[in-house]
Amino acid sequence: MPAIIRARHFGVLSLMLVVTLVVTTFATTTPADAASRERRLKNAVEIVVNQKGDPYEYGATGPRRFDCSGLFYYSFRKAGFSNVPRTSDQQARFADRIKRSQMKRGDLMFFHDGGDVYHVGMFAGWKNGKRQLIHAPSSGKKVHRSAVWTDSWFPGTLR
């Protein structure tokens, strides 16, 4: 192999090694990071649960009134997730998609009409064989727990 090709080959390998080290360094989650994230998630769930009974108000982000996405914007940000977006459609794009069978309490449920997401709620477990969610439903109603009313939704998580 001529010297100029060996040098170029060495340069490419060096660059690949540097990129691999940088990606590995920044992509690795330490046990402490994971534990911190779990604590913040648990805290966010508690904050959402504590908002039960607060009235719905379109565009409201708390602390005493909420629309559906405002409830999670407020709760997750208060729990230390500083980059959670404001609207349900943005939150759906932000969250990691998971399978329904992988859902855990605190995961988000994004409701759609075949197009954009129009509503978000938090998975609260099962009751009488039905999935339950906590959400800020609509005008004249309060944040509460209820059964899922449609199959047009998908789950997302911040775990």
Describe this protein's structure.
- The chain is of the alpha+beta class.
- The longest helix is centred in the N-terminal third of the chain and has 25 residues, at 3-27.
- It has a single domain (31-157), classed as endopeptidase fold (from Nostoc punctiforme) (Alpha-Beta Complex).
- A 6-stranded antiparallel beta sheet has the order 1-6-2-3-4-5.
- The protein has helices at residues 3-27, 31-50, 68-78, 88-94, and strands at residues 96-97, 108-112, 117-127, 130-135, 144-147, 153-157.
- The model is unreliable at 12-26 (pLDDT under 50).
- A hairpin with a 4-residue loop joins strand 2 and strand 3.
- Helix content is 40%, strand content 21%.
Q: What is the highest CATH level, the class?
A: Alpha Beta
Taken together, the total number of domains comes to 1
Shape: globular
Fraction of residues in helix:
25-40%
Low-confidence parts: 12-26
Number of H/I helices? 4
Helices and strands: which structural class?
A: alpha+beta
- Provide the CATH topology: endopeptidase fold (from Nostoc punctiforme)
Q: What is the terminal separation in angstroms?
A: 50 Å
The total of beta strands comes to 6
The largest pleated sheet is described as:
6 strands, antiparallel
Identify the strand order in the major beta sheet.
1-6-2-3-4-5
Note the beta-strand portion.
15-25%
Order of helices and strands: HHHHEEEEEE
Q: What is the averaged pLDDT score?
A: 87
| CATH architecture name | Alpha-Beta Complex
Radius of gyration: 21 Å
Task: Output the CATH homologous superfamily.
Answer: endopeptidase domain like (from Nostoc punctiforme)
